[in-house]
Every structure is written in C-alpha cells, then in structure tokens.
Amino acid sequence: MPQHAGDGFADDDRQQRVVPRRPGSARRYAAPRTGQYAPWTPSGTGPAVTPADMARYLTYQLDGDPIARKLQQRHVTADDRMPGMGYVLEGRPRNGSRLLYKDGDVPGYHSAMALLPDQKIGIYVVVNGDGTAGAAAWDVQKIVNTIVDQSVPAASAPSPTGLSTDVSAYAGSYRSARTSQTSLMKASSLFSVPTVQANQDGTLTSTGLSPDPDRSTQHWVQVGPGLFQERDGQARISFPEPGILVSSAIPSEVYEKLPWYDTPNVNLPLFAAGALAFLLAALGLPIAAVLRRRRRVRTSRPARLAGCTAWLSAALTTAFLAGFALVMADPNVVMAALPLGSPSLLALPVLATLSLVFAVPMVPATVLAWRGRWWGRTARISYTLLTLAAAGFFTVAFDYRLLLF
C-alpha cells in the first residue's frame, strides 16, 4: 500500500481507538474461534507482530535508511542476468519495476511482504488457514501481484524475438537443490519434478516451474544464450551452466538436471508396480494357502517359510503404504511432522525396513522354488514376479530415503 506522509499503514495505529461504553452498557466479546495452526512457535517460523508494527517496519524500509538499503541490495545470484537475494529479501521484478519480496508458509499460516522501493510502496498480506486444496500460499501471492499491478501497471511491450538455436541440451527433468537428501521428504520429488521439453522451433515448454497452479505449463522464447523469456508472461528462466536451471519465480531456488535413471518417469513406475504387487500379495497369499489346505496339497517346510516371509513383507509394506499415503497427501502435515519428530512419521521407515528384512529371503527362495518345483507353475511365476517387483520397490525406497539406513 502507498506510504505517504499522513497516509497509509502508519496512521492505522492512531485511528484505532477504544470506543467508550455508555453507562450501563455491557461489554461484548467475539466468540472464540478455532483456527488452523500447527504446533509451531509463532516467533520461530512466522512473525509475531501487529499490523501497526509491520507498517512501521515497511515505512522504515522505504525511508532510505543506510541499513535498509543494505538489506535491499542483491548479494547473491546464480546468474547475473537473473534476480537474486539479499540478506532476507528476494528480487522478483514485476511490470518492469524493482520488487523485493519475502514470503513464508507453515501449516495454517501464510504471509508475504513486498516492497516497491522506487515507488515508496509497501505491501503485507497475512492469512490463517490453508485455503481450498492448500492453495492459500499462492492466494497470498496473487493478492500481492494484484496490488502491484494496480499501483504500477505494466507497460505494453513487444513479443520477444527468439533466437533460432538448438535448445535440446536444456530438455530434461529438474529437481530443486532445496530438496532434502537425508529424510523421506525427498520422496516429494518422486511425484512432482519440473520438466523441460525442447521444441523444434528453438522454444522450450516447461511444466511444474510456476507457483501458479493455473499456469503449470509455460512456453519460453530464447532471448539470449541460455536465457529464456516467458511467452505472454513476465517470468524468465536461465541455464547458467550445463545441468543448472534458474527461475525468476523463486530466486532462492536452483534446479539440478536429473540423470535418466533418477527421474520420476523411471522410479515412479517401479515404485507403483512394487506397491501394487505387495498389495495383491497381502490379499492373495492367505487365500492361496487356504485353498491349498482345502485341496490337501502338501508343501515342504521351506516352501511354507518362503510363503510366510513373502506375506509378512507384503503386510508390512501395505501398512507402510497406508501411512505414507496419509502423510504425503498433505504437505503441511509433513512440514510440521519432520522437525517436531512425529511418532507416526518416525514409524514409517521402521515399517519399510522390516518389510525389506522379510523380502530379502525371497531372492534365494525364488531360485529354490524353481529347482524344487515348489507349488504349481502359475504360483512360481507369481512368486518370481513379486520378487522382481520388490527389488524395484526397495531400490526406489532406498534412493528416496524411505528406509532407516
């Protein structure tokens, strides 16, 4: 909002007065409400501040104090042609104007602070609750963008003229360098990884780079060596070195190109196939055992042990998958559970590791089953497929830190 003398946020504090009660009138209090907020310490993960105090801070930032100017300088960037970061603020230019930005999100609480220093405009938006389908974080950014667009409208600009060069080297899947490499939060990249596609006309098409859910697919025109401008948009991406992608949407992030064997296109089918095989085995193995008993089909003790270990592995994996689906369905739950040491979250790697322990004997059991002609041919094929699916499943589980080790 505009910061002028005698106008704006700074005056709100003076305008908030206590209305005197009439003699004999009863004081009315608003009914308490239960809000969405995770058990975080507010001053540790979000500002514990009144609107009036935040207005004073914005005014201080816009007054041109030497310390404020130092905070507003760019101190680091992955590409000199792209916005970067200061000590706290990120550069997110909009409508041709310098825009400094800082947002923050925790479960049930979302805020954004923006400064247009050249126009002496400060903006602060904060909401509680996570919105529909967890979209509150982007809703806050949309409010900021709307205020900026009304205060500093975009000037009409010609469409960028692309360079006719080969852009195939930029195609691939990219993972944010901010992704955890030591916890099961790495598994989030199994389901959402930005991809870049090279087109024959020298343009790029990306998915998953925009924070706007309505603009998940973006088209890019090359305006410089390794520098691309969004077609019909204001965003930019660059490739300052091979395998590195930088986006103006979030200057604090750098994306690293994934090798083909570490992409979701490879790992997700392996994980899904193993999960499906274990679910079917958890249901099917007991039924098969009951049918063999009714038919009085005798099996050796090693064959029975092989079936038992496979079922235990399948049952434990099914329990793990149920808990994993509940946790990953809401990223806010994961965000709160990891630093707070949620028992349910800590139990998931234990279940997955125990399942692996019972799955290991399936490898020699598969060989022995064919040598000893355990069960019928169909049962041996099913057991072999389950072993192969388990190998793929636990390879992905190990790579994405779903196990204890």
Most strands sheet: 8 strands, antiparallel, barrel
Rg (C-alpha, Å):
28 Å
What's the overall geometry? Answer: elongated
* Beta-strand content estimate: 15-25%
Instruction: Report how far the terminal alpha carbons are from each other.
Output: 51 Å
User: Considering DSSP H and I runs of 4 or more, what fraction of the residues is helical?
Assistant: 40-55%
Tally of DSSP β-strands: 12
* Total count of helical runs of at least 4 residues: 11
| SS-derived structural category | alpha+beta
Would you identify the regions where 5 or more consecutive residues have pLDDT less than 50? 1-36
- The topology string of helices and strands comes to HHHHEEEEHEEEEEEEEHHHHHH
**Largest beta sheet: strand ordering:** 5-6-7-8-9-10-11-12
The overall pLDDT, averaged over residues, is: 84
Defining traits:
alpha+beta, eight-stranded antiparallel beta barrel
Question: Can you walk through the features of this model?
Answer:
With 405 residues, the protein is α+β, with helices and mostly antiparallel strands. It is 41% helix and 15% strand. The chain contains eleven helices and twelve strands. The protein has helices spanning 9-15, 42-45, 51-62, 66-71, 136-151, 264-294, 301-328, 331-340, 343-359, 362-372, 377-399, and strands at 90-91, 100-106, 109-116, 121-128, 172-176, 195-198, 204-207, 217-224, 227-230, 236-238, 244-247, 254-257. The protein has an eight-stranded antiparallel beta barrel. Helix 1 packs antiparallel against helix 3 and helix 6 crosses helix 7. The longest helix has 31 residues, at 264-294. Mean pLDDT is 84; it is low at 1-36.
